[in-house]
Design goal:
ten-stranded antiparallel beta barrel, 10 strands, single chain
Length: 184
């Protein structure tokens, strides 16, 4: 009787945990338009508005990001400046993203652990990386599964899933829009 009860409990726990994990198949976006080329989209000024929701769906952070992107050869540099209206976080982040010969991307930023890896899928782009995420007086090593989808050539929607042990702990939703170049 003890073995059966433990087996049922383990199966129930596994089912609950697998429901909190995430698996998006980028291949389903390969044929969708408009095609998303992050090197083109982020080359210039981009404004972004976002929220972070905890596991309960409660909004715990609201922010605006000004992104100044520059492209030189196979390298895209994103200089991000954050302003928070709720919660707090980094004020600045600079991404250096490299396009590789095999069609993949690698990225680095000061608060990212190791290198990020990315790949385009038609109108979608997926970026995965790990971060030592500060929360209050502590920090947590988490994994980001960051998805971008193009609405048109000027507009993106971004959804980032923050995971710990493969379980989604929080979600970030960001709306991004290219800005007109200023004329001096």
């Amino acid at each position: 009787m003890g073995f059966i009860r433990r087996s049922v409990l383990l199966l129930a726990a596994w089912t609950l945990l697998s429901g909190c994990s995430l698996s998006i198949d980028g291949e389903q976006y390969q044929s969708l338009s408009p095609k998303l080329d992050i090197r083109t989209f982020f080359d210039g000024q981009v404004k972004a508005w976002g929220i972070v929701q905890n596991r309960s769906g409660e909004v715990v952070q609201r922010f605006v990001v000004d992104i100044d992107g520059t492209r030189e050869g196979n390298t895209l540099t994103l200089d991000e400046t954050f302003e928070y209206f709720m919660g707090d976080g980094p004020e600045k982040r600079i991404w250096v993203i490299t396009y590789n010969e095999d069609g993949s991307f690698t990225g680095e930023a000061g608060d990212i652990m190791g290198k990020a890896s990315g790949r385009s899928y038609g109108n979608a782009f997926n970026f995965q990386y790990e971060m030592d995420l500060p929360v209050g007086d502590t920090s947590y090593e988490v994994a980001f599964n960051d998805w971008f989808w193009a609405f048109d050539q000027e507009t993106l929607m971004n959804r980032a899933y923050i995971q710990k042990f493969g379980i989604v702990m929080a979600e970030v939703t960001i709306f991004m829009q290219r800005q007109e170049k200023s004329v001096l």
